[in-house]
Structures are given as C-alpha cells and as structure tokens.
C-alpha cells in the first residue's frame, strides 16, 4: 500500500528543485545542509511562542511528516492550499503545537474538498484552495482555536503575519529513511506587507503573468518570506484570514509571495461547509 510513497517523494523533490531553483546535481544537493543559501530557507522570521497561533495546524504525510500548514475555520474544517493534497492524501492534521516533531492533538481527516477548477498539471496557480474535514470535532482550548475568514477584499497595503514550519536558515536536510526534506522543528512567523495588485505586479517582474485578481500578495523584503512547506498557512490581517500562502518562486529573494485571496472564495467555502455538514 505504501510502496508508491518513496517514488512520490523523488518526484516531489524534483519539482521542488525546479520551483525553488535549487541545484539539480545530487552531490551539491547532499551538501546543502552545510550552506546558508537564502533559497533554502519561513525565512528571516522569529520563533513562535506556545499558543501564539492557535488556529494553525500541520498537515501530515502518510508517514507522519509535516507537509503543509492550514487554518482551523471551525470545529470540523481546515482551510489550506489544494496543491498540498495533490501528491498524496492527507491522513491527519496536528493542532496545538509549535513543534513539527512533537506535541499537539491529532485529528484524522474524513474528507478533502479541492476547488473543482484546480488542476495542478494544467495550471497550479488557479483556484489553489481546499478544505479538509476532520473525522471528529476539534476540541478548543488555550492552544487550539478557530480563526474567522475575511470577507472584504483588501485594496491598500496592510500589515499581516504568516507562520509555518517551512525551510529556514538551517538549509535543506533529507531524511535518510525516505529522502523526504526535513522541515523546521520550531514554528516560525514573519510579519509581511499585503500589497495592492498594482504594486505586486511591479515587484513580480516576469512572474507577474501568473498573478490573478483573486490572489493576495505579500512581501517581507529580500532575505525574508515564506518558503517550501509553508504552503497552506494562512495570511492573517487583524485577526482574520485574508489569504493562503501558496506560491513562492523562489524563496526569499526579494520577490513577493502570493496565493488565493480568501474573500474571493467565501461563497465556495460556505457552500461546501453546508453541503458536507
């Protein structure tokens, strides 16, 4: 049953090399843990305190590793990025921990609902949004809470925050058992500027061709920003989810990060919550 996962890992790692601009040479790749390359590393962020982001969850691979972030939007549903479920089903999430390797409460996933227009092979930038329904009711406490969705589009620059367990200053490490990249053990966060569509377009240069009106764009400066395995984490402004971290091409090189704008999808979210309640 699990024999296909190592193969998937290699395919996924190859895609990461293309997307993040990492070296294709395996000898160079194996030595990346000795470097401090900005492309490997949330980058330029700070370590999160316990309970600081109670809405954030870790989506786990079938073998238990962190793969993506997500936001608790009610006691049964998680909001994340659709590409996080493309390579394999997500069997469970972990809530209530600032560590990727310990603590927290585990909840099995009953249902995954990707946007019907999302097609990773055809266009991974469009409608990259999904909902995950837990098998049991999520028990809220000081470390586990839901977060409301923003239903208003932000047109002017605002300050926001993104947290995740993605690659950081430690560089790239590969798990010797399955060759899957090892993520940050500690939850990190970074404050970002939410840019207007016009300003984001001017900063994206050639990548602007992939920016859409239903995207939200964030910028933290050169040497800072979200990175691989921060995907799916919510972009939060004034205590509401305004977007989803999804597109980082490449990491922390002075190019904005962008992903689905939540206000563009609230009707889709509400409809699915009703349909599968």
Automatic annotation (TrEMBL):
CDD domains: Tryp_SPc (cd00190)
Disulfide bond among keywords: yes
Signal peptide: 1-21
Domain Peptidase S1: 42-274
GO biological process: proteolysis
Taxonomic lineage: Eukaryota, Metazoa, Ecdysozoa, Arthropoda, Hexapoda
Keyword Glycoprotein: yes
Family: Belongs to the peptidase S1 family. CLIP subfamily.
Chain segments annotated as transmembrane: none
Pfam family, one: Trypsin
Organism: Clunio marinus
Protein name: CLUMA_CG015022, isoform A
Keywords: Disulfide bond, Glycoprotein, Signal
GO molecular function: serine-type endopeptidase activity
């Amino acid at each position: 049953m699990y024999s296909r996962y190592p193969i998937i890992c290699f395919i996924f790692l190859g895609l990461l090399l293309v997307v993040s601009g990492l070296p294709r040479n395996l000898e160079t790749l194996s030595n990346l843990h000795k470097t401090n390359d900005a492309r490997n590393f949330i980058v330029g962020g700070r370590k999160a305190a316990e309970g600081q982001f109670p809405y954030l969850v870790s989506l786990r691979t079938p073998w238990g590793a962190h793969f993506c972030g997500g936001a608790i939007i009610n006691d049964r549903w998680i909001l994340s990025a659709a590409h996080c479920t493309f390579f394999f089903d997500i069997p469970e999430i972990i809530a209530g921990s600032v560590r990727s390797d310990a603590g927290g409460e585990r909840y099995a996933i009953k249902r995954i609902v990707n946007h019907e227009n999302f097609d990773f092979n055809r266009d991974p930038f469009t409608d990259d949004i999904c909902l995950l329904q837990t098998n049991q009711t999520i028990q809220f406490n000081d470390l586990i809470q839901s977060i409301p969705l923003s239903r208003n589009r932000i047109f002017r620059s605002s300050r926001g925050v993104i947290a995740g367990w993605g690659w950081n200053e430690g560089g790239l490490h590969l798990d010797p058992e399955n060759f899957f990249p090892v993520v940050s053990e500690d939850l990190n966060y970074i404050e970002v500027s939410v840019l207007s569509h016009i300003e984001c377009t001017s900063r994206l240069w050639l990548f602007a061709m992939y920016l859409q009106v239903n995207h939200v764009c964030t910028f933290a400066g050169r040497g800072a920003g979200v990175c691989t395995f921060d995907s799916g984490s919510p972009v939060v402004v004034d205590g509401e989810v305004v977007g989803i971290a999804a597109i980082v091409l490449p990491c922390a090189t002075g190019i904005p990060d962008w992903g689905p704008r939540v206000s563009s999808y609230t009707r889709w979210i509400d409809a699915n919550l009703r349909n599968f309640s």
